[in-house]
Predict the structure.
Amino acid sequence: MGAEEPIISLENVEKTYSGRQGDITALDKINLSIMRGEIFGIIGLSGAGKSTLVRCMNLLERPTSGKVWIDGRELTGMPGGQLRRERRKISMIFQQFNLLQQRTALENVAFPLQISGLPKRAAAEQAKGLLQTVGLEARAHAYPAQLSGGQQQRVAIARALATEPKVLLCDEATSALDPTMTRSILHLLRDINRQLGITIVMITHEMAVAEEICQRIAVLDQSQVAELGTVREVFAHPKSDIAKRLLFPGGNAPRPSAGNRCYRIVFDGSSSYEPVVADLILRCKTPVNILFADMQNLDGQAVGQMIVQVPDGADTRRNMLDFLGQRGLQVEEVPADDWI
Amino acid sequence: MIGSELWGLIGISVLETLYMTLLSTFFAYLIGLPLGLALVATAPRGIRPAKWLNRSLGFLVNVLRSVPFLILLVLVMPITRAIVGTTIGTNATVVPLVLAAAPFVARMVESSIQEVGSGVIEAAQSMGASPMQIICKVLVPEAKPSLMVGSAIAVTTILGYSAMAGFVGGGGLGTIAINYGYHRGETPPMLVTVVILVLLVQFFQECGMGLAKKLDKRNR
């Protein structure tokens, strides 16, 4: 990923809506740069302003103030016709797919080509190739109602790629899909990013989605960017409360017995994927209680984190911490109260 | 009870009624469809908001819709004479029918178009579609089944209006019903025309609904 050149820049972007009870701030002075070729995640709880933020990137929502730059051109302040041409470089896919219900898959993919002035036959020809890219050429003549959610999203992706965009905005693109379909859509997006070099902006409320494919993320909270960094940084050392909350969707941790202490073990990829906890228990001959674990094996590297409850006893505890330290893992004590 | 001469007259009246109804529906859509689309497009959250245009069009539609048809028929007689050259007969009835039906059609079109999901419109906007492209390539095609249902309702309503024109010599089945049933007090011819009107309404309604269902790609 090129960290050199931003393809999307937001400069002091503000969005307020005037409601019955006065103005509501949806975005509060957002400054953000998204680099060419990266997969950038914007995460936050619902109502944090994610959807408004992504719609400010293609000016579906006009910022109340501030500037939006795409690929070196300032969108804010562009006249309507020019803005519409510029939008063809920025495609978008949606949670509800938003396919035209009265058109077949093929006709849906051909649609953006037709509105950009391509004759019907040429558009259909090109659409066929795009459906092939997303593996749906066999269902070209099916209507959206005849397709599964995952297939509909594939059609939407093919449609989004039709105008050869530089940026693909994904607004909760996998939130309406089951886990299997989510994974296959995420893989497709990653392939698109790698093979076509298209910058992807992912809006999601699911940390796991961001973790799976994003390189950098911004955590949005109360209309502001609460935290920004590589997925690994934010994941390993969440600084803001909201990032911590998104990382450990609370309430489902078992209750530790009184007097015990809790530690967070961070697997940042520097340790190999081996049974660390099992070894720990065997070595120290003392059981630990896993309160929370979110682990992934990325190319043989362990990435993730775990909250373990360690029994009382200063010696045992020191042994355990030493053991983990030797394995190159970061360990920090976390308040046990958080896990009750 | 009904002589062959009267049956012949009824036959001609059916054709006259169909002529008035279909011609009026055509012109009503010619005016009402763009009017309805304009009402949706210029609405505050529409694709091309225009506050005053929207309000003016809405007001015009409401005014025309609030005049009862029989009164409108008489009221617009000068206009009718200017366009057709006479105020009696089928051609003369088409003018007030169009004037009454166009705003009605506009409201029907408006409500059909409003059923198109905002997500689809947003998707089209994100692809760089212009307001005109959104109307022609997204709103109308996506609302087609609902527009078909609306047109069935419009045809049957116009059919009913056309019969009212019988009171002022408008021609068609209405004239038979008024002349024989009201002025001469002969019930059988009136009943026959009523039965024919019922059958016609049934026919148009069923056709419209059937076509709408067939066109809709959502229920497969």
Summary: Chain B has nine helices and no strands.
